[in-house]
Amino acid sequence: MKRLLLAVVSCAFASPALAMETQVLPKGTWMLDVAYMRSTLDKQWDGERRATSLIADIPRYEPGGGLQGILRARPDATFHFLLMQLMYGVTDKLSLAVYVPLVLNTSIATNLSWEPGDYQGQLGRAYSEDDFWAWAASMGQPRVPNSWSGNSGKLSDIILAGRYLLPQFGWMKSSGFRWAGTLQVALPTGTNMDPEEAVSAGTNLWELHAAGTIEAHLSADQPFLEDDGVSRGNVGADVFYAAFLPRKYQSGKGTLNPLLNNIAPYVGDEYWIDGGDWFGATLSADVVPIIGPTRASIVSGNSLEKARTLPPLLTLSIAYTHIRTLQSYWRSDSALWSWEREKMWQPGEKNLLKATLTISLLRVGLPVQVYASYRTQDLIPGRFTRPANVFTAGVRTLAKFW
Amino acid sequence: MSPPARTLLVLLALSVCACGPQQPPPTRETLTVSGAPYDRGLAHGTQLRSKIRSFYTTLLTNSLFPYLSRERPDIASLLTEYQKERYADGRFAYELLLDSAKSVERTLNRATREELQGIADGSGLSYDQVLVLNTFVDSVLAVRGVALAIRQGRAPVVEAVELVGAGADGVDNDGDGDVDEPGEGVFSPWAPELNAQAVELPPDVKLRAVFVDPDGVDPATVRVTFGTELFTQGSPQLVMTELAADRLEVVATPSQPLTMGAVVTVVLSAGDKKIVDNPPPSHASFMRDEELVFTVKGAGLARQDVRRPRLLDHRTRPPTFALGARGTATAGDGAYLAQHFALLDANTSHKHTVAIRHQPESGPAYVTVGWAGVVYGFTGMNERGVGYACSPSDTLDNSVVGSVLENVADLSQAKLLATGTPIGFVGRKVLEQATDAASARDVMAAAKHVYGWTCLVGDAAGGLEAVEVDSDVFNSGTGGIYPYRPEDVDATGRPYASVGADDLLAGSSYSKNLDDAPVLNIAGTRMVPQRQWSSFFFRSRRAMDGVGRKLKAAYGTVDAATLQGVLGDPELVDRSDSMNAVVLDLGARQVRSAMGQVPATDGPFEVTEVRP
Questions:
Q1: Do A333 and B317 touch (CB under 8 A)?
Q2: For a 10 Å CB count at each end of chain A, is N or C smaller?
Q3: Does B25 reach chain A within 8 Å, measured CB to CB?
Q4: What residues of B are in contact with residue A346 (Cβ under 8 Å)?
Q5: Is A180 in the B-facing interface, judged by CB distances under 8 Å?
């Protein structure tokens, strides 16, 4: 009869690596990680590392009457996710995982503003913003809402991953060096933005710019400052390549927003986005300020010796990730239209700084770890990318059935 | 090599070979099409398929059609034909323009129709769509003229203007040979002049104007620009008196005595008290900005010799203008035409520009500068060195007005229908047939025109002529053709539009066809000559005077580079609707065009050889 046995959790941390760039689970062990994630996005970096709006200014013209004005949007988007990760140790060196991101909600504040343009003789004034929307409404174009909320309950792309702990050669064993290879593949379960809505957001990984369709990682951890069987510090590294497979989109026909979204006649009924691939590297460092009390418990199989190999009570981690992004391509019937998008996604880079605090209760007998992290792309400007800032809080637990 | 190092090298190699940025597609194209008409059209349509489709959608479907369709309720209330189902559900503008396109199609020869069919087959648009794309400019200008005239019929009118002090200053201010005769300095009814309204006025001159509107003139909307000063309601320099419910008197007094010898522009505008909600946004009915120019004592100029100074009020934009120079005007006995075309960019036209070298099976090769899917341009030159440049010139003597007049007794049968040949097709005929400027003029004169245009034609030998055209729906006896050369003079003995012996200027207004339409009332709409209603008139006159000053300063040294500089001069550039700038070097058979950005002259002039 299968039953849950918490006592074996200690096996999962036979080597209590900290940054866990190379973490794998022991054979037959499960890990469930559930987290809440809040991601905010309000700008993009241009080619000169300057922060600009996510949407370029939209000059509007009165046919033959010159510039009506410039419509400016400064969108501020917030995504709320529930992230669920299930990982399983197939062997002591190979773990498989499935990662299910569920969107709780997406909200976008459009923050529209208006810069008046040329004097319009027939009005006796330049267009105000209200004038413009009244004009637009007379041609069937509704006013773009100040805010939008949606995507509740929609999946993002589900990720399947496998990690293999690579063989340790002579010096690796003696120094505690570990390295691992990871391959992950995203299933196209996320949605595309609505081609007819004036404001919307998709949930697929390309639109979130969160991960590639296929990613290959090579990671390493080097612990140091061993203290009574626990490393007080760790330096980790990861290099990876992320490829985006082309994704098909439907073109807008202007059914809801005839002046803004009627592109199908020249773009084609559908178009493809071939997202630019990424390659990047992460450097991480962990410190253990508090190892914490240790006692024999069901988690450690009532063994104090095994309990001492469990993760410390408190771990602080910082990581820097540099990602080079390659040119993204829009494949449509209109090179002009495609370029208007491609120019925002030229070869660029992301600079991510992430801090994580992990509290592990394993040593005191609870098979639970709670963690919180904040990742920012604001501190070091990038180029041709969108700096989402992400707060995550989660809990993970481990178990084994047999 | 260790596995990690090898992996790292692979990643680095990928980064080196795959991170090149995508290059922007050209916003200007150069195309050579040759062979039979259909084959030329097919090549055009196939090679520019993407741009033709996006030009049609972004300019017409997404911009012009919905914009024009807003006028349907007003028009259908008068012309009930447009209440029919065919024109409902947003189809009004397309069907209206298709009606006109089918009408003018009858003036196109078989070869042209085959070329349009080739474009349709190559681009994937329907033939009707291509026909509309090639005919809408003239049709829309004509419909716009009618709509503007109707709209201005609801706005205040300047009934009279008086330059107070002109009648008692001891000077002949109007050049009629009499001093301070009764009515000197009084313009009633008000009608603007091509140049100055009066000269040699005292520096303490005041302006008195009377505005009239059946709905009343709203004093809060009155605006008087007096030289560099702006007066509005509340300004101590502006005194307004409501003479009657429909009549407002305005007296403006400059803060300081005017500078002796200065050329002064006064701009008047006002709206009425009735707020119009349809089409939105809600607004009062505003008259166009009326301008009046005079000189202050000491200028020493006759009225006809006064040139309009530049206005920096941010309310006026230079329209399309053209100029021609030859012989003594040029550096080396050259012959040039130049034009800056500014009308309807709408943030899209500039992305679809194209210079097309046409190499027909017979006849001369020629180059037109235009837009994707359009078989002509408003400038062009053939390998014989004959070129043209045409600028729109508002007139109510247009074919759409003519179509209404034909049914004026029963407006239920009337439609806004363009007839005649769009100017671009006439220009192409010039390039196909003309051997010199005179024969080019004859080709222009032989056509029936959809709308009003002012064209310059020239040849490599120095032939240079202007041809002003309208549709002649009022049977003026001229056939709607008003040609002149640099040496021709008006009733005062002055050239129509030249600053020297070897040049011609053409704006978006007439210089010879001054009484293009009679003053009369048709179905409640007031018909008046161009200078009394066109929103381009004052802008055009000012631009022409600006061009004239620059041309005069360069006289004798003009070459292609000089003309490129004139076309790009900030004083003469419409930064919103500039569409292309072209210099035709008729002797060298070179077409130099700046386009592909707004304004067009923000980019370089590129040379297209007429003979490859």
A1: no
A2: N
A3: yes
A4: 21-22
A5: no
> How close A325 gets to chain B, by Cα (Å)?
8
Whether the pLDDT of residue A15 is over 50: the answer is no
Q: Write the DSSP symbol of residue A19.
A: S
Strands B263-276 and A76-89 turn out to be unpaired
CA B610 to chain centre: 26
Rounded CA separation A356/A372 (Å): 6
**How far is A98 from B8, CA to CA, in rounded Å?**
27
User: What stretch of H or E contains B73?
Assistant: helix B72-78
Mutation target to probe the A interface, by most A beta carbons within 10 A, among B19, B230, B274, B286 is B19
B62/A124 touch (CB, cutoff 8 Å), yes or no: no
Pull the structure tokens for residue B36. Answer: 């039979």
pLDDT tens digits for range A176-201: 899 999 999 999 999 999 999 999 99
* Pair of tokens at residue A236: 């980790």
Interface of A with B in 47-66 (CB under 8 A): 59-64, 66
CB contact under 8 A, A324 and B90: no
Query: Considering only CB atoms, which chain A residues are within 8 Å of B56?
Result: 265-266
Q: Quick one: which of A371, A346, A387 has its CA closest to A83?
A: A371
Eight-class DSSP state of B571: G
Closest to B31 measured CA to CA, from B41, B42, B44, B50: B44
Of B22, B53, B317, the CB nearest to A265: B53
Q: How far is A58 from chain B (nearest CA, A)?
A: 10
- Is residue B182 less than 8 Å (CB to CB) from chain A? no
Can you tell me whether residue A389 is helix, strand or coil? Answer: strand
Alpha helices in B534-578 (DSSP H): 537-553, 560-567
Judged by a CB distance cut-off of 8 A, whether residue A140 touches chain B is yes
Work out the mean pLDDT of chain B and round it to a whole number: 94
DSSP SS3 for A115: strand
Phi-psi region of B437 (alpha: psi -120 to 50; beta: other; left: phi over 0): alpha
pLDDT in tens, A22-50: 889 989 989 999 999 999 999 999 999 99
DSSP labels, A280-312:
EEEEEEEEEEE-------TTTTT-HHHHTTSPP
Q: Cα–chain-centroid distance for residue B501?
A: 25
Measure the CA angle with vertex A159, ends A153 and A162; round to 5°. 150
Measuring CA to CA, which residue among B526, B452, B543 is closest to residue B148?
B526
pLDDT digits (tens, 9 = 90+) for B259-312: 999 999 999 999 999 999 988 899 999 999 999 999 999 999 999 999 999 998
Give the model confidence (pLDDT) of B197-246 as tens digits. Answer: 999 999 999 999 999 999 999 999 999 999 999 999 999 999 999 999 99
ipTM: 0.87
d(CA B599, CA B578): 5
Provide the H-helix boundaries in A317-387: 335-342
Q: What is the pTM of this model?
A: 0.90
Q: What is the pLDDT of residues A301-326, one digit of tens each?
A: 888 888 888 889 999 999 999 999 99
Of the residues B27, B53, B54, the best mutation for testing chain A's interface (the one with the most A CB atoms within 10 Å of its CB) is B54
CB proximity under 8 Å: B 29-88 to A: 49-51, 53-54, 56-58, 61-64, 66-67, 69-70
Q: Which of A4-8, A371-375, B411-415 has the highest mean pLDDT?
A: A371-375
Contacts of A102 (CB under 8 A, 6+ apart): A81, A82, A83, A84, A153, A154, A155, A156
Token representation of residue A294: 């240790």
User: Is there a contact between A126 and A69 (Cβ–Cβ < 8 Å)?
Assistant: yes
* Cβ contact, residue pair A63, B67, below 8 Å: yes
Give chain A's mean pLDDT.
91
The answer, yes or no, to whether residue B19 has pLDDT greater than 60, is no
Report the DSSP beta bridge partners of residue B456.
B389, B466
